[in-house]
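Appendix C: a fully annotated inverse folding record. The material below is reproduced so that readers can follow the format used throughout the book. The structure is listed first as tokens, followed by the designed sequence.
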């Protein structure tokens, strides 16, 4: 099955946000903004999030929706809490990630992408 360019671009954007998040966690740990336990938990959660772009790339509509809900939740949480409650590395990465997450969600729900996810879930 042909995967649209929009889906490929969204998956790349999701990988970029995951990479930025891991980099921010490493810098936060290195600068002693987080404890070792929090760092391990954060990296473990990001490891689980790596399943989302993998499954989105394979045409999983459920993964597409889970990512979209998580992205929307993170943006709403960022707007609600503000940047002042975050460590400096997390604040910088959050500002960078918001437009990337919006880009990924928009690309995942464009008509060609939606057709791809509909075809992936329909029985053949």
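Designed amino acids, in order:
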């Amino acid at each position: 099955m042909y995967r649209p360019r929009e889906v490929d671009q969204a998956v790349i954007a999701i990988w970029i946000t995951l990479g930025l998040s891991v980099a921010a966690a490493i810098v936060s740990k290195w600068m002693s903004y987080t404890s070792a336990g929090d760092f391990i938990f954060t990296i473990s959660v990001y490891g689980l999030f790596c399943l989302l772009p993998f499954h989105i790339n394979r045409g999983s509509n459920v993964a597409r929706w889970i990512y979209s809900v998580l992205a929307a939740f993170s943006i709403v949480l960022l707007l609600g809490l503000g940047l002042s409650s975050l460590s400096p590395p997390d604040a910088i990465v959050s500002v960078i990630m918001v437009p990337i997450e919006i880009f990924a969600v928009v690309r995942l729900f464009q008509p060609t992408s939606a057709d791809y996810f509909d075809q992936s879930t329909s029985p053949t």
